[in-house]
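Replying to the earlier thread about multi-chain prediction with a worked example.

Input:
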Amino acid sequence: MLRNLLSEAFCYCILVASTCERPVELPFDIPDPRLVVVCNFTGDAFFIVQVSKSRSALDQSPEEYIANAKVDIYQGSTFIETLELVPRGGEIRTPYYITRELKPKQGIVYTIRVEAPGFETVMAQSSVPQATEILSFNLSDITVSPAAGGALQYDYTAEISFDDTPNELNYYHLNLYQQFFAYELVEGDTFLIDSTLQTIVFSNSINNNSLLAYFSGGILFEDKAFLFNRIAIPVLVQIKPESEIIGKVYAELRTVSEEYYKFHQTLNRQQNNPGGAFTEPVIVYNNIENGHGIFAGYNASTDSVFVRR
Amino acid sequence: MKKLLFSITCAFYWIAPAFAQDPLEQKVNLVLKNATLEEALYQLSGQAGITLSFSNDILPKKNITLRLRRYRLSEALNILLRDTPLRYRAINSSIVALYKIDTPKTPAILRFTLSGFLEDAQSGEPLIGANVYVEGSQRGAITNEYGFFSLTLPAGEADIQFSYTGYESQNQRIALQSNQQLNIALKGLVALPEVVVVANDSSEKARRLAWSDEILSIAEVQTLPALGGESDLIRTTHLLPGVQTGTDGVGGIHVRGGNPGQNLILIDGVPVYNISHAAGVFSIFNTSAVRSARLVKGGFPARYGGMLSSVLDVRTKEGNKKHLAGAAEVGALSGRLSLEGPIEKDKSSFFISGRWSFLDWYIRPISEQQKRARREQGSNGYNFYDLNAKLNFTLSDADRIYLSYYQGSDEYDNYGRRSDRLTLQTQDGESEDYLFDQSYSEGLDWGNKVAALRWNHVFSSRLFANTTLTYSNLSVGVNYAASDSLRIASNNQVLFRSFDFGRYRSGIEDVGAKIDFDLIPSTRHYFRFGMGVTRHQFRPGVLFYNDSASGIPDSAETTGNTAIDATEYAFYLEDEYNISNRFMLNAGLRIAGFSVRNRNYHSAEPRLSVYWQALSKLSFKSSFSFSKQYLHLLSNSDIGLPTDLWAPATARVKPQSAWQTELGFDYVPNQHINLSVEGYYKKMENLLSFSEGAFFLNDWERNVTVGEGLSYGLEALLNWRYGKTKGWISYSLSWTDRQFEKVNLGQRYPFKFDRRHDLKIVLTHRLNSWCELSADWVYSSGFAYSLPLLQYRIEIPGVIPPPPVEVLDYGSKNKYRMPYYHRLDIGVNFYYRTGKLEHTANVGVYNLYDRRNPLYYSLRTKYINENNDLRPVKEFVQVWLIPILPSVNYSIKF
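Result:
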């Protein structure tokens, strides 16, 4: 990042005396908008699908969700169910389509087919992989030290062993959630008044070809990133000791389909890309035929442990 | 040597027929006691002006005791050669040759070697690639990198022509009676510098093996129109077929679809790893210091190795051995000074040249003004310089020593400070002043140091050796510091403070030794063999990086980016074999190896080139070469920034390799025109690239991806010269692509500089003795480019929480093409003389019709007033680098 930043600054400096620029009509046709279909599904939960459309890069209008689409799920070539539209509201702030009966099952290949007036029909396929069991989840090297602003900083190493299926390439998304209890002291007694979970976001400095910190939390990795199916990853969290108590750490190990991994990996790399004219772009994976987005399954197993020295 | 031709010569060799007499009838005397046959022949020779010639390895062992008085030579020889397989025959009136009867009926022709050095008559500079040609025959030789030639010819008289582009040819009649050393000095043509591409000389082309090989005349480089009046060697190579730059502002050269890091760039035989100043606007080669340059694009001889795509062999001036000379040049962008002269006349000399840029004079005041407008104190600036120095000593006819040194550096800085005061009303209605202090400082510097100590030694007229100790260093540094603070003015209480700084250093350092031999046993064979070893030290990485605001640990010392030592070695042998006057080949083998972190790589690299003169005006050529490269240049931008990282092959990262094959022909319909057409096919494997979106401060070995590339195409070069007008047209039709596992989702994509069509026209016309016009026009397909033309937003429950993220859709990598690149440059050169001073003034215009060739498109947001609301509007902005740019340049020489 530093190097990119300075290199770009340097280039601009060199160009300052002679560079010229002007707004232009591109000599290329901007492609027509296409359907954007987004669905990450897991076992024993209904399919939730968001349908929107892509826009010109020059378009500043708000995201436009498609409310008149026909969204069907197939098992192989056999039609299973048409999804219902749910207007925006509730936990999901955008309109979405949902199955009322069908919950995906592990190992079955599902096909999604989306039709909407004015757009090409799009299709995609994916399945829910077999869950990988967390064999052990431990914390080690726990230290507590004062931090700026009167906070307390907890440093520890989260060690997770998992039952990776040998001789095949498996993909994972590991999320760690730190629990915090808000408390009040009433006449010397501690009353826990609330509990929150904070997703732990890791630094990009751990990134490599087989592992990367996901921008909204956790790490994405291939099983070849670690020897002996064991992850040891340093974690840093801070609490306000006057109002918070540290609680458990929850580990969610998602065994994800290849589509899930490739989409989120490339999306993550694009989000972290500094951009600019002198930086090579990141092409985001897409398994929606004739459209954009992702239709991908995953499975998960969880475990938790208290942060105790 | 097994076959040592030994001859005994007396008197002179060529006697006119008028004085002819049968030598076998000459009367001779002989007194021998237990003598060998060789001693007997010695006694016979030298009597009555007779030369006996023979090869000493055909003489049988024999003890002879006899006494002869006034015998005919034929009788004496009959006695001596009795019971031997040897016979004799008079070649002419004075030479009698001995031969074996099981050899062909005609006796072995006696041959001698003419060797020596060709140099400039005025300066004593050796002439590289000059021709030594036997009139009326197809025999000839080319001087090597040190001006040395060796030509083995039949004994007797021969008319030898010595010629070199831009110099008056010299003819000499040589009576070759023994091995002979001859140093020739050629006078330069004052009136009209020659065309840049020497290969347009048809006779010369026919005489040398030249596969995708161009020699650049520095005199012509200085004649052509130049950006800002700054003549540039690399920009001139861009005018040749198969050589491309990306666009204005893109550094390096791309040869036949190769990466900039695949070019072996040599200064006096030493590799140099960064050739750009000012992000590629200029190269590091100060043309005042360059003597010659040779670009090889394919059919690589075995003596060259270590890089896949091309060899640019630049030789710097040795220094004037005759008299003190100097030059000064000033243009809008830089100034140059050169001084050279003898230390001891005709024995030793020195050369020193410097170039300094004036860019800082322009950039700093402009940037100060711009920063002031933003209420900042500070500026940015940029400077570069080059220094070339050389010493050379002629110790004897057989020994010369050279010491050459180059140092160049670029420095960029950008700093600024801004303080601001903001007054806010508190809840109780009082005002409170807050002070903001922001400062930043950025620096980027890089530089090369190259040194060579060379010893030329002529072992014999047919064996030449060059021993070199080499040193090369590229160092890149980036410094960054920024601070931000917020204070309450009344009590100076700090509410917020952050301080970030980082220091990045990378580089590569080479120390090496090599020895190269030229062995020229006959006109049919020219052997080159040698060996070399280089110790590399790679220093990629961050020394210190601190970002207190981001939550990243306080000091991120580099992990895995520590220095890496490696050793590279190579042996090679090649033979330029003239099978007949029409058919020649160069066959060679290079054995190379690389040792790094207990991992050893080896390679055997066969090289073969063939040349067939099918007709007097038509010749065909073909070549095959395999090359391995143990170094990788990692770049995230493809625009040749100095921060690109040189990295070695390691246990994780294999060396890259390429094989290339070519087929072409040369057609020379008359003395004015030369047409050369070549087709090529190049397959590259184990190429290395940063994985898409890699975080560059991390361990590079774990953030790179391996792939392959394919290039193929057709190149044509038409040279012409009619009277005072000369020039060339080059055209390339080419394809090149790449495929990496972790780039473009593993799909094959066009290489950034995959230009389908590439046309260049260069023209110079001499109006009179003091005025010359020149022009070049370039017209190329646009380079491949990625643009996000579509976008969409997503949020996924449980994966991507609100707010949604914006996803840019590029389609695929390098999906789009920039508009055609074209540009016309013109120049006028004025030459005049005052006393001993030579003046040259150059007036030129770069990009005459102000073509706006895009460097990139950028998506910008601007705000417009819409019903008293600020509304963001996005638009694509085209950025181009160099508009129409007139220039004036003046130089003076003494």
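Helices of chain A lie at 2-15, 258-272.

Feel free to reuse this layout for your own posts.
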